Amino acid sequence: MKKIQFTETVLRDGQQSLIATRMPTSDMLPILKTMDQAGYHALEMWGGATFDACLRFLNEDPWERLRAIRKEVKNTKLQMLLRGQNLLGYKNYADDVVADFVTKSVENGIDILRLFDALNDVRNLETAIRATKAAGGHCQTAISYTTSQIHTVDYFVDLANKMANLGADSICIKDMAGVLTPQTGYELVSRIKDAVDLPLEVHTHATSGIAEMTYLKVAEAGADIIDTAISSFAGGTSQPATESVAIALEDCGFATGLDLQKVAEIAEHFNPVRDRFREEGLLNPKVKDIEPKTLIYQVPGGMLSNLLSQLTEQGLQDKYEEVLAEVPKVRADLGYPPLVTPLSQMVGTQALMNVISGERYKLVPSEIKDYVKGLYGQSPAPITDEIKETIIGDAEVITVRPADLLAPQLPVFREEIAEYAKSEEDVLMYALFPQQAQDFLGRREDPFYDVPVQTVSVKIAVD
Predict the structure, then answer these.
(1) Which of 243, 269, 371, 458 has its CA 20 to 30 A from that of 43?
(2) DSSP string, 374-435
């Protein structure tokens, strides 16, 4: 019988996609033993925006969340998402910070590190790959899937080969926008499985309405693992529902290894959690909508909602379609970067500025200038000299790995936060989010530490 395994995302991407990662650890702990017995390949429960949200909105120590979940989950692998040289932030960090963060992640309980780079520049994965393997973790490198004239099946197969040669233990096709169509998914999985002798996982989002068909086709093509979210936090900008996909695939002759009775208990636990977020207004009904425009504009669902929110705040919601149409133009100008954090936010902001100012590239954020200078890595396609001159004038464009320009940073971080840091994990918290970490570590000394921080609106990280 054909086999297909499941990675459950409700603790990370499922809730990140629908409620901006606002689920506290207390909502997770009571059901973890059941999740551990349900037959999942892995639980994706850390990384992405969880670290930032714990500090900024939940008054939680993200390291303590990891340790608490590891204490309850004895048999199932724990998985995190890491943005390569960006770690969990939005810029490159020096190699010493990357290596230390990866090591501490494994020491605190992570089994699988899913490593991706927003540009598919494998140079930005090298340090994290080495550190993961040295720490004894499973290194899963992720292809940031997107579509353009250069992002062909051949391109992605070549990328998979490069990742395998760098030491990946498995590979993931990471379709953050939900634009991987069923037949292309079938061809891509078939070709990568023929070229690379490693387990292959497929991750997509339900945004565009085709995810379940894509999962069926990639399963038929030989994918080993797929990512789903328990039905309570599935659909829309999240993943397809675990129960529905499992039942459908079992009906097609696949063995999933899932205990569907346990899975039903998991849904029963998370249903009232979802309902509470609905009542509080943090679960916006719009994120559950199907958005076929994703397939037209290649824009992730979270990015669509962020753009609409920004325009509405400025009374410019009538410009929504115009901004959407500008996004693929900006993306083409910038060498077709995949729309994943941080590039999704950067491209969206530039498109917004182009429309609002009435003149393309009249206003250019510093992050876009740094990107054109090569400080995020190599653009997938070359950027024309005309666009370079428009954005950065005659400024130098680097061709080396961006992190090669960074001196070791840990000694400075340790000194700066010495007053509050009680562990290396505290130092790393400060390294990634200096202001938020210092505030949090200062509050930790307060006898009213357990009082939640006031929540405010936040952009959803698209990863």
Answers:
(1) 458
(2) TSS---SSPPPHHHHHHHHTT-----S-GGGGPPP-HHHHHHHTTTT--SHHHHHHHHHSHH
Helix (H) or strand (E) holding 310: helix 301-313
pTM: 0.94
Say how far apart CA 19 and CA 13 lie, in whole Å: 10
Q: 197 is written with which tokens?
A: 């002798």
Helix axes 434-444, 424-432, angle to 10 degrees: 140
What does the DSSP 8-state code read for residue 451? S
Q: What's the average model confidence in pLDDT over 205-209?
A: 94
How many degrees, rounded to 5, is the angle at CA 98 between CA 452 and CA 443? Answer: 20
- Is residue 46 within 8 A of residue 266, CB to CB? The reply is no
Inter-CA distances, 336 with 90, 151, 460, Å: 19, 9, 21
- Reference 233, options 198, 277, 200, 199; nearest CA is 277
Owner of token pair 């290396």: 424
3-state secondary structure of 227: strand
DSSP string, 151-211: --HHHHHHHHHHHHHTT-SEEEEE-TTS---HHHHHHHHHHHHHH--S-EEEE--STTS-H
Q: What share of the chain is helix, strand, coil (3-state, %, to 5)?
A: 50, 10, 35
Lookup: tokens for 272: 């009232």
> Which is nearest to 452 in space by CA: 62, 58, 24, 51?
58
For residues 355 and 347, what is the distance between their CA atoms, to the nearest angstrom?
A: 13
d(Cα 182, Cα 25) in Å, to the nearest integer? 35
